[in-house]
Amino acid sequence: MSALNKLRNLNNVVYLITNATKTPHVVSVAGSILYDVCVREQKWKFGTTTPSEIRIEKCLKTDKTILMDKFASTSLWIVACKLTHSNRWIEPHGCCRLIHSTEIETLGYRSSRNQSLVDLGNEFGGKDLVEINRFALRKQLRNQGVGREILNIALDIHRCLWPDRPLLYTTNVKVTKEHVMNKLVETQPNRFSLQIFGDPFRYEEHDPHYCHTHILRNKFTSNSEFLSDSQFRKALNHSLPITIVSYKDTGSSPNEKQNFIFGNVAWQMK
Question: What pTM was computed for the model?
């Protein structure tokens, strides 16, 4: 059973899946999470000029400080939000993204210093790969299964929309075995194959740690676990966001929103 069909409204949390090209405000929502977790808490430092065009800026609409880059507005994002009792999402706490329509971010760092990334580009080609990154979760929702659910949803989306394209992600070599993504994949050996590609690399010369490059492949490309793959694709191509909540908690009039039901999960399209 897929993560989407098993999803519950855990601790009053819902998960938004949104294409940033159609809902640009999601960029500032995710960017605020990334700034709080990656920059303020984890003290992530990056160069003034990077291939990803990473930068810190103010959102003009919300006046919040956000972390941005050149992939933010073209990616597919999953955002975890805490709900009020009225089922109106008020505060985003976690996110990750899938880069699928352009050359992936990691390949932008290939150079003579990072020969393994040069080899990666030669073997796969930038647009043949999908990359998952910018995974962050605020302290309020940690150790509650929310992070695993975000990644589970991302894996389901990848298998449904791009089943034949390898999925790439990177991990700090010091925490590779303990990384939540690796632990998640290890629990589903019949679903995925996973390899570490090439030698460890550093994105920038000043980075304190090296990273492993992971290539994940689906062992089968059937979408049979989804009740309707065509509806799933149709939903992602419509005006977003799509809100995933437990069906019993939707509580909305059919005239207010169009719902796509996958098992006990409702996809609400505004």
Answer: 0.80
